[in-house]
Amino acid sequence: MDIVPEITRESIASLISNDKREDGRALDEYRDISIETDVISKAEGSARVKLGGTQVIVGVKPQLGSPFPDTPDLGVLMTNCEMLPMADPNFEPGPPSEDSIELARVVDRGIRESELVELDKLCVEEGKHVWMLFIDLHIIDNCGNLFDAAELAVMAALKSTKLPTATIVDDEVVIDEENTFELPINNDVAMCTFVKIGDKMVLDPTLSEERVASARLNVGVTREGRICAMQKGGQQPLTKDDIFAAVNTAISKTKELIEYL
Amino acid sequence: MIYVEDKNLVIPGQILADEEYYPGRGTFKEDGKVCSSLIGLVSLRNKKIRVIPLKSKYVPKKGDVVIGKINDVRFSMWDVNINSPYSGILPAFEVFGRDKKELSKVYDVGDVLFLRVIDVDEVKKAKLGLKGRGLGKFKGGIIVDISPTKVPRLIGKKGSMINMIKNKTNCKIVVGQNGLVWVKGDEDMEQLTREIIHTIEAEAHTSGLTNKIKNKLCLAIDGELPVEETEEEFVLEKPKLQNFKEELEQEEREKAEAEAQDEEEVEAEVEEETEAEAEVQEEAGEDGEAEEAEAEEKEDAEDKPNFYDVIKELKKKSQSKKDKNISYSDNSNNNSFILNNR
Amino acid sequence: MSEMIREDGRKFNELRPIKIEAGVLERADGSAYLEVGGNKILVAVYGPRESYIRRLLEPNTGVIRCRYNMAPFSVDDRKRPGPDRRSSEISKITADALRPALMLENYPRSMVDVYIEVIEAEGGTRCAGITAASVALVDAGVPMKDIVVGCAAGKVNDEVVLDLSEVEDKEGQADVPIAIMPRTGEITLLQSDGDLTEEEFQKAIDLAMEGCMQVSELQKEALMKKYSTE
Predict the structure, then answer these.
(1) Chain A contact present for C26, CB below 8 A
(2) Which residue of B250, B299, B304, C140 has the fewest C-beta atoms within 10 A of its own C-beta?
(3) CB contact under 8 A, A22 and B191
(4) d(CA A4, nearest CA chain B) in Å
(5) Which stretches of B226-335 are assigned E, i.e. beta strand?
(6) Could you give the CA distance from residue C212 to residue C95 in angstroms, rounded to a whole number?
(7) Confidence of residue A1 (pLDDT cuts 50, 70, 90)
(8) Can you tell me the distance from the alpha carbon of C135 to that of A38, in angstroms, rounded to the nearest whole number?
(9) A147 φ, ψ to 5°?
(10) C-alpha to C-alpha distances, B207 to A183, B156, B211, B232, B270, nearest whole angstrom
């Protein structure tokens, strides 16, 4: 692993303590954001998001499958994340790392708990056939704050997703690729990630800010300003005040993010 | 017969000349032709062709001065990351002589040092040393990372570029030949200097760069453009060591202060200083002037509310220069190829 | 030679539309993006760098390691993430195809990592991957004798044609992907899959080499465009 030079640690901390950042942003300001959808013809839904130098591609692929026994009339969401070795010299090839799984699960939590995908409309035949949506996150360039970029990309990809119609004819599923319908979505969600440096909470951290931070906080918020997912990460603790302040910022900042969708 | 001109951009495999020309660095000879092995700019001297790479990794060379980061402390040496495919080692002997001391009390993991490459073995591992004026541990400041091939451009002809930046920002700047640059000064000036250095890196192969940089510095610091002056030309040759005098003396002073409390170390350091090699170039009369200017400039800078706007703008520019856009073909239009990013 | 028109309207010796861009990623030492037909390929290069896998290193030269990977959403039916036998083989032959051009003598005991990501696949991804990987290697500043380029020819409806699309690859009788060093015409990758007479094989190679020369020009253009000042 790369060791952060002590003087870099000091200089970033000193800037932050003066409410400044290396790239001139305010502590609660995002880098430039761009979202493109329908970037992959073969995926039923797709998006590419750039957040500063960070780049993420998401593809959504549906598959017919069996529902879970306890929810026989609901479709299934599966979120998977690959932190590709191309994205960062420290990412290794191989099965998903802990970091990669955490990222996928936190992003998934925002989508799942806000119940924005109308899963009941993904049921083809109760108890037998439902649509399973595979949401695959491809991290291609890591310049910090993968969480917020990934949540935006997943959201944008889901909103661009069109599914073929499936009907039951003589006990068989017939898929009509010609007639598609838009994935029914009834809400928006966005995520704000903060890191703690010194005693300040910093929004949308760059890679170097992430590396000197003592702790991380992800806050997922819906269009109505309701909190739907959170995660605390990092080696050091946060205070209650840190968290309340971050949540407050997140509720206003996610509104800005949702406008990009 | 020659197929290219001086300063042409060439790519690997490109035929540069027939066999009456000599293949220099960045080229090779095959079937009677001199070809480029790199993406870079042609440098033509008489009958010798070289290609100066646009990008490359630092390979340690004996005598180079480099900036390194302590990665690990071992039994009798420090492991030093020198921004290269090859790590460096700093043997305890180079620092303590025959004395026995606890290594991590002197330099610990995460410390950044200015070092000299004493020797390179057959597998390119670099043995590093601290004997020489100004070599040692950096205190404070920031590290800026550029491609090692852009180091000569950053320094400029006889240090013209680097000295201009130093004078204008009042920052101390030390450039390692491995592409790491240490900058220390006023906090805002450090950030401005970082952006200026990145701009130089991104635009290294353009002409009239010194003036462009001067304009940017003046705009950011004084809020106005400087009086017109004549243009400095781009030189490809590697300049001698830059002028470290100011930094070195400051460093030594600091070091001495720190060591005054730390009994044993003093000896070693004094020894080093007396042994100091006179390789570092000096330019007299600069220090005093620079300090006076510093006071004024600092005040000025604080009055400028747009200071970080200039940094932001610079950042955007070097970003767009890098042009990191992939433009995907549109889904609705399977075989169209949209170039929406230029 | 017949003037037959192919399923997608191309002539027998016509390539699909191609777009190449150099230097598209921030973190990688070198990178490239390539589209050919419906293929979208992204390549990142790291190195020469230190490697902790000591047994892979050589005392007198640098080594190259490739990883070819298909995104789960790159194909019609979702592909399970992670390596499979096909991608492992392609990774190996890609490294072999690129290695002859590399001049890593000055970087002993170092590693060059090439990561090829197929974002979307539409037939001919291995050649597209090699073509893009070469551009990314140049972008990383890795010294090379030449810029390796890949292209395939094959047999469809008893006719030798250039650059098979996905449909042609599935329905065709043979596929011959090659890679060459264009300056010398030396072949660094050759596979053949299907049924060919000796004469058809020779024709396929000639056609594929012609295709390579065309793609090679686009590689050079992409690099020049990225780095020229004007």
Answers:
(1) yes
(2) B299
(3) yes
(4) 6
(5) none
(6) 18
(7) low
(8) 26
(9) -60, -50
(10) 54, 12, 9, 9, 45
Q: Decide if C216 contacts C138 (C-beta within 8 A).
A: no
Residue A192's SS3 state is: strand
Pairing state between β C63-70 and C111-120:
parallel
**CB–CB of A24 and B334 under 8 A?**
no
Q: Which two tokens stand for residue B298?
A: 């600092």
**Interchain CB distance below 8 Å, C38 and A42:** yes
Partner residue facing B143 (CB), from A7, A18, A53: A7
For C74-105, the pLDDT digits (tens) are 999 999 998 999 999 999 999 999 999 999 99
Hey, which bits of C6-98 come out as E strands?
Answer: 18-22, 30-36, 39-49, 63-70
pLDDT in tens, C125-167: 999 999 999 999 999 999 999 999 999 999 999 999 999 999 9
Q: Do C27 and A87 touch (CB under 8 A)?
A: yes
Other Cβ atoms less than 10 A from the Cβ of A208: the count is: 18
Chains that touch C (3 or more CB pairs under 8 A): A, B
Inter-chain CB proximity B328 and A41 less than 8 Å: no
CB distance from A1 to chain C under 8 Å? no
Out of A42, A85, A141, the one facing C76 most closely (by C-beta) is: A42
Residue C85 DSSP symbol: H
Asked if residue A181 lies in contact with residue A165, where contact means CB atoms within 8 angstroms, the answer is yes
For residue A9, the chain B residues in CB contact (below 8 A) are 110
CB B328 to CB A48 under 8 A?
yes
Residue of C77, C82, C117 lying closest to A140 (CB–CB): C117
Contact C18, C132 (CB under 8 A): no
Asked if residue A244 has pLDDT above 90, the reply is: yes
HSE-up of B190 (CA within 13 Å, CB side)?
Answer: 23
Q: How many residues does chain C have?
A: 230
Say if the Cβ atoms of A40 and B331 lie within 8 Å. Answer: yes
- Burial of A147 per CB tally in 10 Å (0-12, 13-18, 19+): buried
Tokens at C132, concatenated? 């893009």
Predicted-assembly ipTM surpassing the 0.90 threshold: yes
pLDDT along chain B (342 residues), means of 10: 93 94 94 95 92 93 96 93 94 86 90 96 89 91 94 92 93 96 94 94 85 88 70 46 49 54 38 33 32 36 52 63 49 34 29
Helix (H, G, I), strand (E, B) or coil at A42: coil
Residue A95 sits at the chain C interface (C-beta within 8 Å): yes
- d(C-alpha B238, C-alpha B25), whole Å: 13
